[in-house]
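Thread: Alkaline/neutral invertase, structure

OP (GT): Posting the sequence first so everyone is looking at the same thing. Length is 367 residues per the record. Can we get the structure tokens written out before standup tomorrow? I want them in the notebook alongside the other entries.
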Amino acid sequence: GGKDANFGNVGVRKETERCLSQTEVEKEAWKLLRGAVVNYCGFPVGTVAANDPGDTQTLNYDQVFIRDFVPSAYAFMLDGEGEIVRNFLLHTLQLQSWEKTVDCHSPGPGLMPASFKVKSAPLEGNDGSFEEFLDPDFGGSAIGRVSPVDSGLWWIILLRAYGKLTGDYTLQERIDVQTGIKLILKLCLADGFDMFPTLLVTDGSCMVDRRMGIHGHPLEIQALFYSALRCAREMLIVNDGTKSLVTAVNNRLSALSFHIREYYWVDIKKINEIYRYNTEEYSADATNKFNIYPEQIPTWLVDWIPDKGGYFIGNLQPAHMDFRFFTLGNLWAVISSLGNQEQNEGVMTLIEEKWDDLVANMPLKIC
């Protein structure tokens, strides 16, 4: 309060008022968050995705979603409550790749459910007692029936955060947990037809779980993939059985970061480069590697992008760039150092320059 020293206690009083009002808001937030906790066999295992008293039809929002619980988990751990997060990690691990199928087709080993619900069934013998069980959803009841690619990635990231924030590293060293990490990695690093280091996913298999043309190699999944690979590398116990997996993780990390930094980054300089692209180029030394057509650059982009700063585009596929700004993918690229120093600062500069479009009077827009 040095500045306000001449004005009596005005500065101090304002600060006190701010703290009090903040505490009220915080109190309300904690009350709502604690009211959303889901218990299983008497222990907390997560929070429901949404809890609207005025909602007559809850749809599947009364379930514990892996992605939705992550921010709640961080709040709990920062408040010194690790138990709910530990329970959540272990119970979702037990649900990993259940024999649940969509139209007789089973998920690959390692797939984590999008969400789960606590249900109860009557015990045998009619004495009226029930037992609780967890019912996972692997996308069978999701919009578009898409399986979640991000659940396993979030699970690894949260497991790493749990160890770092609580100091309890015994959880990640358990054999079942190590196996869970390996299964997720093997699912993500499996060889297929795809030639890019990015992770190939079907439309809507991420946070935006409905059709928005988010398929191929969307930024959000790549940023989470990069983050999960880094976390897994820190947690995997290296022995003869995991040596080749660790090598695969390291190779993928460097290829992935190069690919995203090189081909997903857009600023005014890059846009001018794309305008000069030739198309239908053969040979290894082609400049326009993905055969992007310059006329694809939307008119809004040229008017919108500031002279300073830039961002990672939403998606890159052969002959197609998705120039939409996806917030989670960009911010997670900054958090995980997927972007280089200059790009990370560029994203923050862009958000500042375009504050009215991206933030305005509400929390940051998803897209």
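GT: Both are above now. Quick notes for whoever picks this up: The beta strands are 37-40, 43-47, 64-65, 115-122, 130-137, 265-266, 311-312, 315-317, 320-322. Residues 18-144 form one domain.
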